[in-house]
Amino acid sequence: MTLHRLHLDHKLYNRKPQGKEIGAISSRIIESPVEINVRDLSSQLVAPISKTWIPAILEEKRTAANWKSQSIFALDFDDGIAFSKALERLHEYDLDCTFAYTTFSDSPELAKFRIVFQLECAITDPAYRDTIQLSLMMLFPEVDKSCKDRSRLFFGGKELIYENYEYYLDIDKLIEAARFYGVKDSSSKNFKRDLKRKSKKIGVNRKSGSEKHSPYIYTIEGVESASKLTKTKTTPALVRGVDFSKLRQEIRILDDFLNPTHKLRHPQLLGLATNLLYLEGGQQLYKECINANSEYATDEKLKVMAYCRTNSYHPMRLERFSSYEEDWEYTTLLRAAKRKEVIRLEAYESISVEDARKKLKDIFVNEVIPSGNTDIHVIKVPTATGKTQLCTDLENVVIGLPNHALKSEVSDRMQVNHLSTPDLEKLSPQIKSHLAYYYSIGANEEAIRYLQALPETDESVRTYLSDCIECYDTSTTVLTTHQRALFIDWNHNTIIFDEDILGVLLPISKITINDLVRLETALENDNDKAILQGLISDITLGKISSPRSLETSIFQDFNAIEESVLTSQFRYDGDILHFFDASYFVVDSRDKATIHYVRQYEDKLPVDKKIIILSATSNETLYRHLFGDRLKFYDIGNVELTGFIEQDTSYSFSRSSLSRKIGQAIEKVGELPTITFSTFKHQFPNAVEHVHFGKTSGFDKLRGEDIAVLGTPHMNPTVLSLYTSALGMQVRTSDFSKIGQQCVIHNGFRFWFNAYDNEHLRLLQFYFIESDLRQAVGRARVNIEPAHVKVFSSYPLPEAAINDEEIAEGKQRLEDARKAHLKSCLEISHDTTHSQATECITA
Fold first, then answer.
1. Cα separation, 705 vs 842, whole angstroms
2. Which among 202, 212, 211 is positioned nearest to 230, based on CA atoms?
């Protein structure tokens, strides 16, 4: 809790001091400066301990001229307004107070009380102090006018009547509320004049083209990144042809406003008015909604629009006044209203599957395989072009696959002698459970030692280890997983990765603050304990808002840390040991108890071996950041689709908006097998089991099926920050807040999207979204199967049909492809069984 510096007299009173007593207090209180939090302060001001105080720091004598700093403000009410009414007024303007107490003169007949406010930090500018005090007094004209005195004495009182010790006064909202409240009763004729006078009274004098006021005047970030709310040369143009019925479906705060039974507070009305001012028909709509809602003080709330118009306010960002996070992605109502349909600027260029296969084979056989052993070859190749099949006759290579299931499938297709690294499925459940926990906390070496200690008693472990050794010692072709392909010192000269390995080279993991606290409690080494305590303190105090590096070398006895984790009776939530091997870590901006970190393994790709990566989603820029001139990148291009991808870009269906639009989403996908976010799968009647965004690679059970893909899978900004650090991208912390609806040109489209301004962040943002969508769409194998995939996402895929003309053409092509497929099934040779033919036709 914040400590405040002020003067607090040491003498106690059970009544209001009089005459000479006040003089004595005035003389001695200057010698009693204290540092105190508001909870303790409040307890010192009411019976039985009632002390006199000054909510500021003065020097030498109690005069206004000797004022030095202040972080507490107070108002005296002696004219009979009820505290409940005062509090109601504060709440109407989205304000509150820290505590309040009745004064010695309070009685049932006449309410007398004092309201106290705290700031987050002390101010030292006397003009700014006066602006705050006078703004409070303008909002409450009933207050004792002597409160404006910088050296004012406040006496103790009888009892506390309100407490909210966590509240800090929002100065921006206060000044805005005071300015409006001061003119709410002005006539239309005198509105501008009165606003100027009231602004001048609190130290704010606005003039067209210039400003004379305290430097702390309230600001709202506008559409053109203007920092002031005064008239500027960049006034936004009026947006015409606005469909408000559609706009309210997108913007929840607008929907609330248009609901005649829903009352909004002043800051929400102000924010909406600054936006509606620039929408054709918006001012009239505002007037109609205010008049239609009996909850509003009509004359007063109608003035909000005139107030914004008089000030020439820019549109306030939705995040400043809407409590709905899903609204924030639109930035302002103007941007939401200006959203246009996705425009294709460049035709989707594609080649036939046959040509793609020939091109891939030519590159693979004639360029990549004969090349030297120092290059990293990344071949961007569409799915279903035979990239995996191309590897099935290769000898003396290691082939890394995303998972064991795909490894097993490829093993069945191999045309040469080969070995497959074993998986853990044949081990007992107890052993697998132990290993799973070791891997979950990053104790990989301990997992190996655990297995090596078991062979004499467990046949399955003996076989497992024997199979591993055989694979590691051979020069025969080996099939394995991405992880093992990266971390084993193979005898082979060529390592091939099937699918993108960016996530393996730069794995992201997370732990919780509780993990670190558990570990710190268990440590005995005082130096290491202190280091960990310092780290925990930095995290809890919010000092790690951008990626920070951490080296295990800072600890004196890291072996003891490992031992403490392994022998702990408590189970850790995250990969705690790998955390200390992180290249960078950062606290989650949305969940302060979670810490994300990234490890960098690009150096695990040996420099004396040939590396080949075959993937449909690889990005040249990102791999170039990792490997520089060592990278050789090949782009096969796009292939003609046998199937059909139809995309509806009307809604983003992002995680933040899907909960509100879940009904629409379910209606759109109908009975189609659906791939979406894991957290929403249970709400879809036909969600695909075990498949969701982030977990789509390698699944082939949807081959040839009509499916739906719903969602725009944005990456957590905290995770993006780790990638930018690991990739050496020039991104500032402030760049992460510069995201909003904007018109972008990408992938041959012009479209509106909630995108980052920073080009590196936008590159990563689009890469992850596109990768997830493409992987999900690819489960139906539309490249070679006459399947129909419906995509519901605001991020357009180049291969998808996105307008009526393209959709009509695509449906016709799909119908032709299905007829051709049916015909080929009917022309099956005479020796095919009836059941086989039926199966073909059904497929």
1. 11
2. 211
CA distance 801 to 790: 10
Query: For residues 99 and 18, what is the distance between their CA atoms, to the nearest angstrom?
Result: 25
Q: Alpha helix (H) ranges present in 441-575? A: 444-452, 459-473, 482-487, 502-505, 513-522, 526-540, 558-567
Position 451 scores a pLDDT of 81
Q: Is the pTM of this model over 0.85?
A: no
CA 534 to chain centre: 27
Residue 343 φ then ψ, to 5°: -110, 125
The CB-side HSE value for 131 (13 A sphere, CA atoms) comes to: 25
Q: What is the pLDDT of residue 828?
A: 59
Tell me the mean pLDDT in the region 264-291: 94
Does residue 595 sit in helix, strand or coil? strand
pLDDT for position 223: 29
CB 781 within 8 A of CB 698: no
CB 461 within 8 A of CB 365: no
| pLDDT exceeds cutoff 60 at 48 | yes
pLDDT band, residue 800 (cuts 50/70/90) = very high
Strand 739-746, strand 610-615: pairing: unpaired
Q: Which residues contact 60 (CB under 8 A, 6 or more apart)?
A: 30, 66
Cα distance between residue 192 and residue 189, in whole Å: 8
Over residues 711-730, the pLDDT tens digits come to 999 999 999 999 999 999 98
Question: What are the tens digits of pLDDT across the range 560-584?
Answer: 888 888 877 777 888 888 888 889 9
Angle between helices 526-540 and 513-522 (to 10 degrees): 160
Cis peptide upstream of residue 547 (ω within 30 degrees of 0): no
* Distance between CA atoms of residues 607 and 583, nearest Å: 21
| Residue pair 466/600 in contact by the 8 Å Cβ criterion | no
Distance CA(662)–CA(765), nearest Å, equals 24
User: Taking a C-beta distance cutoff of 8 angstroms, is the pair 418, 411 a contact?
Assistant: yes
Backbone torsions φ then ψ of 523, nearest 5 degrees: -75, 145
Nearby residues of 178 by Cβ (< 8 Å), 6 or more positions away: 134, 135, 136, 138, 139, 198, 202
Residue 220 predicted with pLDDT over 50: no
Angle between helices 444-452 and 429-440 (to 10 degrees): 150
Name the residue among 756, 763, 767, 765 with its Cα closest to residue 733: 756
Task: Give the torsion sign (CA, 286, 290, 291, 297).
Answer: negative
Q: Per DSSP, what are the bridge partners of residue 632?
A: 377
Do 688 and 777 meet the contact criterion of CB atoms below 8 Å apart? no
Q: Is 646 left (phi over 0), alpha (psi -120 to 50) or beta?
A: beta
For residue range 626-684, what is the model confidence (pLDDT) as tens digits?
999 999 999 998 889 999 999 999 889 999 888 888 999 999 999 999 999 999 999 99
The pLDDT of residue 249 is 87
